[in-house]
């Protein structure tokens, strides 16, 4: 505040004497005494300018900004030619956050006194708060021209830093320090500019100069910690945040920074404690509530996280980060429509937020709205070609639609990115293009590294129980192929040797299969509302011996549970056709076809080899009445090639073969599963481009239930598998229904599962090694109905003898694998690859 001038003339009456006394109190720092006298004067002469001016300044200095501004407004009405009064009013308005009005007040002062350096300086500060940085810079230049000072150089440098012109800001800070070497705030902001320039060691030296004079100076400790965070030196940063908080326990910035470091270290519970303190220190801070919500999200306390993001938004309706985080919670909770709405609001609040754009696209992909997903990911990649997972998600969305434009380039992009160690594709999406176990391991490891899973504790050592305690962990204990395949195994487990628990991470869909699964286990634990740590603690308390992950890296997987080592032996089975990439999963249950021994080095787990196939066909399923071809939507005459695989498994190379087969087999059709309308339109267009009438592609319509779907397989002649990502449960469906399946064996598990199942069904002649052999074999069988009929008869006969159809025998082999895992643990032996003997 500029001090109002006082009349040097001797007092002529008692009011003048009172004013002089008030001025003396003001100059001595006795604001309350000055205020008391000035109020007495105003009661007698309410329009006395000097009294209004000085009292307005005093009220503001006492924190009564509204009263002070009102008095100064009255003062400039009495004397509109006082530059000091206008400037001081601007100062008060600036303190009140009324920056535009403050600029107007400074402009009035400068119109009266153009060389008023302090008014130029105050105007610049207000302009900076309004985001008008270039204008602020010009005002600082004028302030320096009229009243050069360390403070003016410092403020101008701050404006340059706000504009991102850190090199120039650095020079300004140095000029301020040349005039005032002990100006501690300048050293701190000089360090901030150096941090932004990536000159971390110099920044730390700048902060250390401050701390050498004041070791407990919170701003220096706080910003030093931020520089260490930028350098990835998280533990050192944490120590500096703690020092800042020891000096100032309610320093909300340090509490937030500390929480963010703890998030980076995966210490979410401690981060929550820090953010909770920040909220207590600044309850009206939207950012503090948002950060606390993020820690709750990481702790999987979703309802609390959602409430915290809602509080942040209530405080700041345009808080893009809170809208974005809210959408992330809703995505996890599978509230796709609400998630899309939250991400849309985040984009509206901050159109430049690439995170909100990417999350909106991902939510659209989860909701099977492939058009918006494709559009969104294309925009993301146009802005940042290296945005994590965007290329792989775009590829997956396009493959779901059979939109093959630019597909080869996207595939190369993902493959090259994985080779370079970049997070370009989610592991599951990568399987559809990979056929390379080595690269699939790399993709899994890259994806897992970004999760920042907790450090696995030392392995539990446990003595034997009366029965081995197994826990199957899955989000798919409902109407899902994995539950279809597992249900009979669980029901057939030998309860004299095993105690069987389900750790259910997913929803209850109310289906008959969900009820059957709940009944099949000795204990069925619905833990979807619990965090990873809580689930792991529960499993430890239950003394689970062997925990079996059924998810791998599929949707809704929770590797954080297994990272906490809830069981002394941890195995993976069935749910994901590749390596999990997790070094805390001991065994991958497989067979010698899906993982040939020479490929074992590409798996993070040791391999537990089962004889025959690693999968069994669920033989107790119902078969509905067999429809006529007309009822199934097929022509009554002609050869029916069939593939009920998911759309994303169909790639141009296999579609080329299928179209050549249709051209060569007169009257034949290709029967595909129904899907999204875009994919069907695209496949018809692709068929026409290859010289095949679009109507020769027939898309199966929905049927009331699984028995009806199983029965209609009998209307087809030959099931054609997709080579890169095979039919898995779908192969089992076809073989159960008696429909021969032809596959081309690849390199990865995803490309070899059908070969395993078909071989275990006793039809090795239906497994070929090259695309050329695949095409030739399909054409041969289509032209020789008697040979195909013999294969059908063989398959029907094998239902009684082949290992794929022997649920009881398979369960005993699986149990033998568990017993060997447990034997090794009790013997103190490390996990090691082994083969279960053929019974």
Describe this structure in words.
By secondary structure, the chain is α/β, with parallel strands linked by helices. The protein folds into four domains: 14-229, Tetratricopeptide repeat domain (Serine Threonine Protein Phosphatase 5, Tetratricopeptide repeat, Alpha Horseshoe); 271-451, Serine Threonine Protein Phosphatase 5, Tetratricopeptide repeat; 468-609, Rossmann fold (3-Layer(aba) Sandwich); 640-805, Glycogen Phosphorylase B (Rossmann fold). The strands form two sheets. Strands 3-2-1-4-5-6-7-14 form an eight-stranded parallel beta sheet, covered by helices on one side. Helix 8 runs antiparallel to helix 9 (150-162), helix 10 (166-179) runs antiparallel to helix 11 and helix 13 (218-230) packs parallel to helix 15 (252-264). The model is unreliable at 3-12 (pLDDT under 50).
Question: Care to give the gist of this entry?
Answer:
The protein is of the alpha/beta class and 839 residues long. Helices cover 56% and strands 7% of the residues. An eight-stranded parallel sheet has the order 3-2-1-4-5-6-7-14, covered by helices on one side. It has a six-stranded parallel sheet with strand order 10-9-8-11-12-13, sandwiched between helices.
């Amino acid at each position: 505040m500029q001090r109002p001038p006082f009349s040097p003339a001797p007092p002529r009456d008692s009011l003048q004497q009172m004013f002089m006394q008030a001025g003396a109190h003001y100059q001595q720092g006795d604001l309350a005494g000055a205020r008391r006298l000035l109020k007495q004067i105003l009661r007698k002469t309410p329009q006395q300018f000097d009294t209004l001016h000085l009292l307005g300044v005093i009220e503001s200095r006492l924190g009564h900004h509204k009263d002070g501004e009102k008095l100064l407004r009255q003062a400039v009405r009495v004397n509109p030619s006082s530059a000091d009064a206008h400037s001081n009013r601007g100062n008060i308005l600036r303190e009140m956050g009324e920056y535009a009005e403050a600029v107007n007040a400074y402009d009035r002062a400068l119109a009266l006194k153009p060389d008023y350096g302090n008014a130029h300086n105050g105007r610049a500060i207000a302009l900076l708060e309004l985001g008008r940085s270039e204008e602020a810079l010009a005002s600082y230049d004028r302030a320096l021209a009229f009243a050069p000072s360390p403070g003016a150089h410092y403020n101008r440098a701050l404006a340059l830093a706000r504009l991102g012109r850190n090199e120039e800001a650095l020079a300004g800070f140095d000029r301020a320090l040349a005039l005032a070497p002990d100006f501690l705030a300048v050293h701190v902001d000089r360090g901030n500019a150096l941090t932004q320039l990536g000159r971390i060691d110099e920044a730390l030296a700048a902060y250390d100069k401050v701390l050498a004079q004041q070791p407990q100076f919170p701003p220096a400790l706080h910003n030093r910690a931020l520089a260490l965070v930028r350098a990835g030196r998280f533990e050192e940063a944490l120590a500096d945040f703690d020092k800042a908080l020891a000096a100032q326990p309610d320093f909300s910035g340090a509490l937030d920074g500390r929480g963010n470091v703890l998030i980076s270290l995966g210490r979410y519970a401690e981060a929550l404690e820090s953010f909770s303190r920040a909220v207590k220190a600044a309850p009206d801070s939207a950012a503090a509530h948002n950060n606390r919500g993020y820690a709750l999200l990481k702790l999987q306390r979703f309802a609390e996280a959602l409430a915290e993001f809602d509080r942040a938004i209530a405080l700041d309706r345009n808080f893009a980060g809170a809208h974005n985080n809210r959408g992330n919670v809703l995505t996890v909770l599978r509230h796709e429509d609400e998630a899309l709405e939250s991400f849309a609001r985040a984009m509206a609040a901050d159109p430049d937020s690439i995170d909100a754009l990417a999350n909106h696209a991902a939510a659209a992909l989860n909701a099977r709205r492939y058009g918006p997903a494709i559009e969104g990911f294309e925009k993301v990649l146009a802005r940042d070609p290296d945005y994590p997972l965007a290329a792989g998600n775009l590829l997956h969305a396009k493959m779901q639609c059979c939109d093959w434009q630019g597909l080869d380039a996207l595939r190369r992009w993902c493959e090259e990115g994985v080779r370079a160690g970049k997070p370009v594709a989610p592991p599951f999406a990568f399987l559809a293009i990979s056929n390379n176990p080595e690269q699939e391991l790399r993709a899994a490891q890259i994806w897992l590294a970004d999760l920042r899973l907790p450090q696995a504790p030392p392995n539990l050592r446990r003595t034997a129980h009366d029965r081995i305690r197994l826990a199957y962990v899955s989000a798919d204990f409902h109407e899902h192929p994995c539950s279809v395949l597992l249900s009979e195994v669980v029901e057939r487990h030998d309860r004299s040797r095993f105690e069987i628990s389900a750790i259910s991470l997913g929803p209850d869909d109310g289906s008959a299969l969900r009820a059957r699964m709940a009944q099949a286990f000795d204990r069925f634990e619905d833990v979807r509302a619990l965090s990873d740590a809580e689930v792991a603690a529960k499993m430890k308390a239950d003394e689970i011996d062997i925990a079996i992950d059924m998810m791998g890296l599929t949707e809704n997987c929770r590797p954080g549970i297994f990272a906490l080592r809830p069981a002394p032996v941890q195995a993976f089975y069935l749910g994901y056709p590749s390596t999990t990439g997790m070094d805390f999963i001991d065994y991958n249950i497989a067979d010698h076809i899906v993982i040939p021994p020479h490929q074992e080095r590409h798996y993070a787990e040791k391999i537990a080899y089962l004889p025959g196939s690693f999968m069994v066909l669920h033989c107790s399923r119902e078969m509905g009445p067999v429809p006529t071809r007309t009822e199934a939507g097929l022509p009554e005459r002609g050869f029916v090639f069939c593939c009920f695989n998911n759309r994303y498994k169909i790639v141009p190379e296999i579609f080329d073969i299928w179209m050549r087969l249709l051209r060569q087999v007169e009257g034949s059709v290709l029967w595909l599963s129904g899907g999204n309308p875009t994919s069907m339109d695209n496949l018809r267009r692709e068929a026409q481009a290859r010289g095949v009438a679009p109507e020769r592609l027939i898309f199966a319509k929905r049927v009331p239930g699984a028995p009806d779907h199983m029965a209609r397989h009998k209307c087809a002649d030959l099931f054609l598998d997709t080579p890169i990502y095979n039919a898995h449960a779908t192969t089992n469906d076809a073989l159960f229904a008696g429909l021969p399946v032809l596959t081309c064996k690849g390199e990865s598990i995803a490309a070899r599962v059908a070969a395993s199942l078909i071989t275990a069904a006793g039809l090795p002649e239906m497994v070929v090694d090259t695309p050329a052999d695949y095409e030739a074999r399909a054409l041969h069988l289509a032209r020789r109905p008697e040979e195909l009929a013999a294969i059908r008869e063989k398959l029907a006969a094998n239902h009684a003898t082949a290992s794929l159809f022997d649920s009881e025998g398979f369960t005993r082999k699986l149990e033998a694998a568990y017993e060997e895992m447990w034997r090794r643990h009790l013997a103190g032996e490390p996990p090691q690859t082994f083969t279960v003997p053929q019974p």
